[in-house]
UniProtKB/TrEMBL annotation:
Domain Major facilitator superfamily (MFS) profile: from-to ranges: 1-390
Signal peptide: none
Keyword vocabulary terms for this entry: Membrane, Transmembrane, Transmembrane helix
A single MF term (Gene Ontology): transmembrane transporter activity
Protein name as annotated: MFS transporter
SUPFAM superfamilies assigned to the protein according to its UniProt record, in alphabetical order: MFS general substrate transporter (SSF103473)
The keyword Aminoacyl-tRNA synthetase appears for this protein: no
Origin: domain of life: Bacteria
Keyword GTP-binding on entry: no
Originating organism: Deinococcus soli (ex Cha et al. 2016)
Length: 390
């Protein structure tokens, strides 16, 4: 790197630091709250509806993603992300109060507010990718993933302090996680106010692309298919596997370790997967992601806690590859980003709702086999992707 380029790179890294830190805190908030929402719902006396909180979260995110996408096109990334983090703070607090008091409708209201917030702050990945040249956008997305795993691991490492805090408040660790998540999202909202997003004529020109025109461009629909499939399968199995672990006799610390392995797969290898997608192309991300998602689904019902841990790790890594590839492709079409994210949330919401019913009627193995079959869909995206597409 030349002497002239080095200060520019440092300046770019400094500009992205608040964005990356805020996203790390948001991932930590999700880890200690919404990931274990199925256990809270079970504790409230409705195990058959254990997937309902996640379904509502995904439905609210699907509704808000397009709205936040449009807001960010008009008012900028910082305005949209600040509002999303603030909304998440409020949702976490409402969810905590509802779960602690045993008022199911209030807890579900908090879950919906959290989902609406996620529909906005998950679009931070586009802001990160926009800040670098196109050939390095996979790397920028991978770096964001790596920062996210730090936030998650800090929170899972604090499982015992969270247990003690819950005991002091008269609440379970899962319920207390919602209070902790609200605090993290509040700090993220403050951090994002200090972030200076990239602006310029080139970005503004792309943002004026009409939505209908964006979806007529070759590759956009198939990209949306890969992103929605990866998001739907990952959230479905991630949300319902903790309930299976609970039935296997795993305690809170063991479930937290299981989630840590999943988060490691999702975010911990961003330093590798992002540059690989930059180098080998979108097809590599779609094909490898599909294969790993299928492997995760097929290993989930095997006997033994070790297989469950392997499944959760593969689930996260498969999602990473397909999702980073799809997100990189979507940075070319800002008008399609919000609605594509919405499709992913719809898939996740339907997956968790129907998945809970499938488990209740046919068992967890039936859900796993269904997910393995659906994991082949990103292969269609790989087939449709242009061979020369970076």
């Amino acid at each position: 790197m030349s002497d002239a380029a080095r200060p520019a790179a440092l300046s770019g890294a400094a500009r992205l630091a608040p964005l990356y830190a805020a996203q790390a805190l948001a991932t930590g908030a999700t880890t200690v709250s919404t990931v274990l929402a199925s256990l809270i719902m079970s504790g409230l006396g409705s195990e058959a509806l254990a997937g309902l909180p996640s379904t509502l979260i995904q439905a609210a995110a699907a509704t808000s993603a397009g709205l936040f996408g449009a807001l960010m096109l008009r008012r900028g990334r910082r305005a949209g992300l600040s509002l999303a983090f603030a909304l998440g703070t409020m949702g976490s607090l409402v969810g905590f109060l509802g779960a602690r008091a045993g008022v199911t409708p209030l807890f579900l209201t908090g879950a919906m507010l959290m989902g609406a917030a996620q529909g906005g702050y998950q679009q931070a990945r586009y802001a990160a990718a926009e800040s670098v040249p196109e050939a390095r956008r996979g790397t920028a997305l991978g770096a964001l993933m790596l920062m996210s795993v730090l936030g998650s691991f800090v929170m899972t490492g604090f499982s015992h302090p969270i247990e003690r805090l819950g005991a002091a408040l008269g609440a379970t660790p899962e319920v207390t996680g919602w209070l902790v998540g609200g605090a993290l999202l509040g700090v993220a909202a403050l951090l994002i106010l200090s972030w200076q997003p990239l602006t310029g004529p080139a970005v503004a020109k792309r943002e004026r692309l009409p939505l209908a025109a964006a979806f007529r461009i070759p590759g956009v629909k198939s990209t949306a298919l890969a992103v929605a499939t990866a998001q739907g399968l990952m959230v479905t199995l991630m949300s319902l596997t903790p309930l299976r672990a609970h039935h296997m006799g795993m305690d809170h610390a063991q479930v937290a370790a299981l989630i840590s392995g999943h988060i490691l797969g999702m975010f911990g290898f961003g330093w590798l997967t992002g540059p690989l997608i930059d180098r080998l192309g979108l097809r590599f991300g779609y094909v490898s992601g599909a294969l790993l998602l299928a492997a995760a689904a097929l290993t989930a019902p095997l006997t033994g806690q070790a297989w469950l841990a392997v499944s959760m790790f593969l689930l996260g890594l498969g999602w990473n590859l397909a999702f980073v590839a799809g997100s990189k492709a979507l940075t070319r079409f800002p008008a399609a980003q919000g609605v594509t994210d919405a499709l992913g949330y719809v898939a996740a919401g339907l997956g968790t709702l129907l998945g809970g019913a499938v488990i209740a009627r046919a068992g967890f193995p039936a859900l796993a086999i269904t997910c393995a079959v659906l994991a082949a869909l990103p292969l269609v995206s790989a087939w449709r992707a242009r061979p020369t597409q970076p």
